[in-house]
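Researcher: I'm preparing a figure for a lab meeting and need a structural model of a single chain. I don't have an experimental structure, so a prediction will have to do for now. The sequence is pasted below. Please return the structure as tokens so I can convert it later.
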Amino acid sequence: RPKPSEATFRAYLPGHEEPFLRTGDLGFLLGGELHVTGRIKDVMIVRGRNVYPQDVEIAAQEADGRTRAGGGAAFGIQVAGAEEVALVQEVSAAGEAETAAMLRRIRQAVSDAQGIGLAAICLVPPRTLPRTSSGKIRRAACREMFRRSELAPLAEWRDTGMVRM
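Model: Understood. Here is the structure written out token by token.
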């Protein structure tokens, strides 16, 4: 695949003669140190604004004590031709009334923290989400499982309207 290889291994910045490796990581330099904050491909653009999945996941996990820290995956989905945000979150079991309240708290927390509404929330049991060998959530794999309805949800909420991937 010559074109993707060229774009990855021989990228150039304006005014620089030497190529660099485009890793796909997102980060910044501060005080001469590189801080990696995530992956470029995970950033969602919602109504013209960059939304970072980690920010959505943290807001959701702080909303309720039964959510599992580090056990969430936020990703973009297409709803009526626009990118919206879906969340799959590992939680401990709860009754129906508690689950409904948890879904409301998660939606409100994400709205308050990020200024966006979620299009869908899927609550799943602990250790359900696909992970890398080092334990990181595989968001793209989770998105595909969500799209194919391959998750075994404890509860699921979707905003009105058709959700398509």
